[in-house]
Amino acid sequence: METQSQTAMKEKNKKAVRMTGAEAVVKSLINEGTELIFGYPGGAIMPVYDALYSYQKELHHVLVRHEQGAVHAAQGFARVTGKVGVCIVTSGPGATNAVTGIADAMIDSTPLVVISGQVGSSLLGSDAFQETDVVGITQPVTKWNYQVKRAEEIPEAIARAFYIARSGRPGPVLIDITKDAQFASLDYVYEPVKYIRSYKPVPQVDPVQVQEAARLINLAKKPMALVGQGVILARAEKELLEFIEKTGIPAAWTLLGLSAMPSEHPLNVGMLGMHGNYGPNLKTNEADLIIAIGMRFDDRVTGDLKKYAINAKVIHLEIDPAEINKNVHADVPILGSVKDSLPLLTQMVSANSHESWLEQFKACYRIEFERIIEKELSPVKPGLTMSEVVDKVSVAFDDDAIMVTDVGQHQMMASRYFRFKQSRSVVTSGGLGTMGFGLPAALGAKMGAPERPVVLFVGDGGFQMTIQELGTIFQTDSAVKIVLLNNNFLGMVRQWQELFFDKRYASTELINPDFQTIAKGYHVNSLKVDKREELDNAIKTMVAHNGPFLLEVIVEKEGNVFPMVPAGASVSDIRLE
Amino acid sequence: MRMKEEFTLSVFSENHVGLLNQITNVFTRRHLNIESLTTSESAIQGIHKFTIVVFSTREEIEKVAGQIEKKIDVIKVFVYTADEIIHQEIALYKVHTEALLNGNQIETLVRQYGARILEVTPEYTVIEKTGHKHETQELFEKLDKYGVSQFTRSGRIAITKHKTEMLDKYLKKLEADNSKLN
User: Fold this and answer.
1) What is the pTM of this model?
2) ipTM more than 0.85?
3) Which of B2, B45, B72 to mutate to test the interface with A (most CBs of A within 10 A)?
4) Which residues of B touch A135 (CB under 8 A)?
5) What CATH number is attached to the domain comprising A390?
6) Helices A438-448 & A67-81, crossing angle to 10 degrees?
7) Of A279, A259, A260, A254, which is closest to residue A269 (Cα–Cα)?
8) Pair (A144, A253) in one structural domain
9) Crossing angle of helices A338-348/A207-219, nearest 10°?
10) Which residue, of A155, A188, A221, is where some domain finishes?
């Protein structure tokens, strides 16, 4: 008599199809629902590219110009869709070029599956041509990685990769596949992975902790909610609003939590952190209760930890147990997905409002408006400010575009002044601060959300780090609107040099190329503006143009981003000038 | 700054290539020196065990444990202070057989320290002692007066003072949770 497992095995084998490892890679990706991949071919991944050639209808491959671009594009795609971004690169330099993007995805919890080719298994460890220890190199910057040396391992390795990348706190996974495994044949059967013994992606919410949190919330006089990307990743925007609205608690957001709440929501009190709004930073040290929702108390948010939230108890809603007490002690940790914990909490708290407390945030905003915002948005000086450009572009898209940024001053200005109506509208490099992220990420965002306008704000420094992806944008005819805020400086570093290094501008001034000529070379239409009166029309032209467009705006050379919490200072030492 | 004390971590994991590197990396990133590390298959088949001794603060070691446990292939990390475990190390000493025969001092030390003689050849004699680090160290210093040509000490192995294996309980809970899901 045959056992149950033998029967199952026979059943499985009946369904099996004989194919090469390379074809199994492609089939596995399709089985996981992949429709789009970003990549760059090379020797050790050629069998997979050959297999891709047969599946062009099911699986669209975007040929980038550099592997870093492939990963950032996949990140842009993942951030706007919530799906797993997929990249394919070759061994050696192909894989090492991808490392920056993988590290970026790791620190910003972006789900990616990166497949790298590897030299034949008989050559492993012999310093063969284009061999690097990719699994070793990417180990600290991936959620999980694995080297496949036999064709039979491919379906399960890829199934595990997708499961790990998208479940729990998402992150990048790398699968390294030797060339001989791609050539060899296997009996292909695909079974998605739903469980790994050693991995618990979503901790169960402890009702006792929820009860305690509700008690603290009901007692609090000056509560404040900190909204992070965890809300967006869990698709818990509705649950967040229900909680905030019932309790009347002012809510501030981290850079990656931006767009989880509509900009105009009356309880949205603005951005936290180094260049965040005045109120949320100042009031952090007056609040008697901090409710951190899917955020990780990054040092750019907290400043000096010893002088952070000094009067507050802390409730921390978090999916990743390693984040609890990592930077800020949680009086009441609530482990689990905020999608599960927020409704439980909403149920248990009493309806409330905090009018006078909220009024204090409004008073702070009025101060910030007078001292900073008004001067930024309606400047009297001749030089264009980054902020006024961001503000006008936001209006031109009816405050409902996807905003992608690169890294630096423009990133902070864009985050401060762009407005949002719906979630998943921000793609920015937060934790790693990767210059060069913007252009390829914008391409990926556009491909992920073709029905929505995608506008990229980029500086003249970061633009030139991945400028070659204009080629990919042209080849795919992706209607990315690029707003280049050009001050001919590495502006953020220059600002620090001005404030903290006696204006010693060491290697921050750029002598730039003619960006319009470069755009022309890539067949991308462009306009250049350096006068305020030309700006509105130029933005109109950009919005109306059907296809990618570069709008270069020459902004004031030495503009600074304020407010600012100087590095290492307390959030309540926020400077307005 | 809070006092550093000695902690013993028991890390249980799947037996995969590269896991040691993943675990030690968490210590490296925080500039924590690993005092001792042993690794082998645990009492449960297919599950690997790492025993790691490190000096740190309670606060930091909890963070380290959390970050190790976050690794996909790590099943569970337990943190113990010295009073929660029974632990042992093994040391081997090689002395010249001539020194052993030239009087009874070495033999006395072997008896006194509860050590034993593993092997005697015409050239050398190997002595074994198990104990805590300071005990094996003390014997080394005493023996060295008569010339120790080689001395080696293992990492720590440890067993908890709990009645049952903590991991067993955890695995049973995992299985129960999983069967509820399916």
Assistant:
1) 0.94
2) yes
3) B72
4) 18
5) 3.40.50.970
6) 40
7) A279
8) no
9) 50
10) A188
